[in-house]
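Teaching assistant here, posting this on the class forum so everyone can see the example we discussed in section. The complex has two components, and the goal was to see what a joint structure prediction looks like when all of them are supplied at once.
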Amino acid sequence: MKDYFHSNNFKLLIAVIFILFGLMLYTAGTGGSIVSNLLGFVSAPMQKISSVVTNNATVAAQSATRSNDELTAENAALKQQIDELNKRLVNYYTYQQENAQLKKFLELKNENQDFKPVSAAVIGRDPNELSYNFQIDKGTLADIAVNDPVISDGGMVVGWISSVSGSYSRVTTILSPDTKVSAFDKINRDSGVISSSIKLADNGLLKLGFLSVGTTVKAGDIITTNGLGGVYPRNLPIGTVTAVKNEEYDVSLYAEVKPFVDVKTLRDVMVITSFKGQGQVLPDTSSSSTSSSSSGAK
Amino acid sequence: MEKFKWIRYFAYSIELLVLFMVQETPGLIPALFGARPVLLIPVALSIALFENERASLLFGLFSGLMIDFGMGETLGFHALLLTVVCYYIALIAANLIKTNFLTAMLTVTVTSAVLFLLQWVFYFVLYNYQDAGYVLSVHYLPRFFYTVAVMPIVYYFNRALAIQIRAKEE
């Protein structure tokens, strides 16, 4: 036993333990290290290739592996969809006016000339991840910085950059409990804070909290960012309200929101590296019914 | 003879890198009950069952650092745990127990249970997130079973690797 404690292997173990403790303390304090940058430098290109190969294989497999029964079923489903769309066409003129109003807020390209977007591919999803956070193939070399907002190709909110390295970045999604976004109802302009929990995230839902008792938020309303806090630009679509419920521990209400984007299956995203008002606390111009917290992430 | 030892270590390193890619690539491993396995845990443990303490310690360290990196949290948490665990597994496998399928399964079951439990405590409970019990049963438990279920394949692959290269060594 005495020999064991004097062995070189045991000394090496103790030395490694001390070094790792130091590394843990350092990375916990700074959020990054040379070791993680080195690992990222080695693994990011390989992950990118492996993601591209997997995506191509998935697309190829989808068409090659489908049987006649599956194609017939799909045909029937499409016919049913056509019938439903024809019915919806009847209501077209009723919705036209509302649509014009919503379109005004959703046409990002026309309204947001100040955006500097960088497109990126999702290259990593860790099995230990609970909030569907992921890794993208662009980093500081593409001018991406921590807290930059991440959106889908269609301009819907996906999340924010929580850490960045030279060749890769990590995106904390809107489904993460770490994400808090100041948002408002596009129809009646009631404000609240978008957040989530693991349970809600598993059901693909968000929570618009801090709504007053007299809120006019209702199912079907569209929720967008309101630009407070300077992390997200104003008017980025988040999702639609599915239900309004009572908070468990106080008299306020919250709305369950179904996000427009399914962050669990995203393959490509856009990072807004610069926009007007980034990093600034903007004044709340909406007629908010409650006080709202700062925009963006923690 | 030294040459074959380094060939074996090189093969383990490639195995760890490839399985890390497989583990991290979206859509490559099918999710069961929403969970995907952490492949590097059974790999590090099976290497420890066939190698000496020093090599096991270093492969445990490497695997742990890769898991930490993939997770994007504090670097060193899994590295520290796997370094210590792999070191002692190699020591026990050389002196106390016989390396076979049963001991391999026992090793991965106990180690994975401890690792996931500590992960749950340090990365969820201590962060004061909601629904800790729900997360343990719905996320960590399926991941634990999936990770343990991978061990037979990894064990027999590494066993074949170790035996084949050792045979040439002798």
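For the discussion questions: The mean pLDDT of chain B is 90. The first helix of chain B runs from residue 2 to 24. Think about how each of these relates to the inputs above.
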